[in-house]
Write a structure and sequence with these properties.
237 residues; mainly alpha
């Protein structure tokens, strides 16, 4: 009969520390969603007030916005598109895209280091095992960097779960930051273009941009499913 594993005092101490850290993170996560996530979305839902707030605080407002974007990446349940649209409305296409990419890169680095430290259990705090397993082929892929770049380059792919999964792969942090900074440009810039058009009251162009983004995103979702299905079938064989 198989007996339960006996842990040494040192192993027990480490397990207690790990559980305490995970518990603390979950509490922090809940607090961030309640006290920062909700007000953030309410704030960017009124872009004119957001633009006035940014103009009032200048550089500090821009730094605060970068922090908002980084927080959105870490707290994956907060959607990123409203922030990107607000960035285009408040800062314009170029500056809005740049600020979003800086925030995304900072948040992605934090997520990578968190997952690299705590492993798959950290990912399972946010996503069901089925979603995690759908990307399992990336761990042994010889073309890891190329596939990840393509998946992040295509608008509409579930970048939140992929961001958390990357820490489980052999990819280096420096490589990951370069990929996430460059590959996310298309999905970010489409939102900032639409937000800029709204700010200029060019509503017809804004509608056209958002409609095209929806179509491209749907195609991206289809491409994502094909790539992951092919990758998992190859992994099984």
């Amino acid at each position: 009969m198989q007996t339960s594993k006996e842990y040494t005092p040192e192993e027990k101490r480490r397990r207690k520390i790990a559980l305490a850290c995970v518990g603390a993170f979950l509490i922090l996560f809940a607090l961030l969603c309640w006290f920062a996530g909700r007000p953030m979305l309410d704030f960017v839902a009124e872009p004119q007030k957001f633009r006035e707030w940014v103009g009032q605080y200048g550089l500090l407002g821009k730094l605060a916005f970068v922090g908002m974007v980084a927080l959105q990446v870490v707290v994956a349940v907060i959607p990123g598109e409203p922030l990107e649209i607000a960035a285009g409305y408040a800062f314009g296409i170029f500056e809005g895209t740049l600020l979003c990419l800086i925030g995304i890169t900072l948040g992605s680095a934090l997520v990578f280091l968190f997952v690299r430290k705590w492993g798959i259990k950290a990912v399972e705090l946010f996503f069901p095992r089925e979603k995690i397993q759908s990307l399992a082929f990336l761990q042994n892929s010889k073309r890891l960097n190329l596939i990840v770049f393509i998946l992040f380059f295509i608008p509409g792919t579930p970048k939140d779960v992929m961001t958390y999964f990357i820490g489980l792969t052999p990819m280096k942090l420096s490589t990951w930051l370069v990929i996430t900074m460059i590959a996310r440009i298309p999905s970010v810039i489409t939102s900032t273009i639409g937000g800029d058009a709204l700010g200029l009251q060019n509503y017809q162009f804004a509608i056209l941009v958002f409609a095209a983004t929806i179509v491209i995103s749907l195609l991206g979702i289809l491409a994502y499913r094909i790539i992951t299905k092919h990758g998992n079938e190859k992994e099984e064989h």
